Amino acid sequence: MASSSASSDTTASISTINGLKAGRTFIYLHETGVNDDGAAMANHIESGDIDIADGDQFMSIGRFIPDFKVLTGNSKVTLLLNDYPSNTASSSPLGPFTITSSTDKVDTRARGRLLAIKIENDAIGETWRYGTLRVDIKPDGRR
Question: Structure pTM?
Answer without folding.
Answer: 0.73
